[in-house]
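Render this sequence as a predicted structure.
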Amino acid sequence: MVSLREAKKKGAVADSRMLSFIGAAAEAPPATVPAVAESDLDRIVDPLDEPDAFREHLERLWKETRQRVLAIGRNLMNALEKLEPFPGRFESLVEGLPFSRPIASQMIAIARAVEDKKLSEDEIPPSYSIAYQLTTLSNEEIKRARAQGIVRPDIGRKDIIEFKRIQRSARPRQTGLDLRRLKAQRDRLRQALVEVEDRIRELEGEGGHLQDGDYLEGEAVAVEDV
């Protein structure tokens, strides 16, 4: 199955009108997907009389299911790129398709992951919802997932989600927010210290004297070393 880049070079992806093949039985599917007759898709092979033919038939259907997910994703990605200069056009186009915008976004993510070599075609599960879960892994997580046998076409959705949960719960806590909070606290304390010193100078100028351990009237300020 050729990539979107290869298809564009060969002229296989002419424009976004290729999307019309989805749900239109009268039109042939794109060049990137082998044509399969409806009778062949609906054919039931007897596993007792033809066990080899049964396995071959199901393997073919399995492979073509994945190819069609990628083909739809590549067509959507191509349409998204071409309609980018026209605000609202892509959204209107997707509204007329037999699946929702979130599903379209998931199939685009799958196609993009293959185009960017993040995942290979052979690793993509035939279910778009499971394949999409793989695309949500970072490049580093993908490496670890491959090492653990998670990146494969027969993986289950729950397995990927559990892998992500374990990986991400083991990450060190992000300190950025804590650092900003501490810096803000330091700035407030510094300002409070300035105000205290100004008040001390005022009192000393008025002849007042503070003893160790005395507080300013009505307030107690704790200043920490920061």
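Summary. The chain has a mean pLDDT of 79. DSSP finds nine helices and no strands in the chain.
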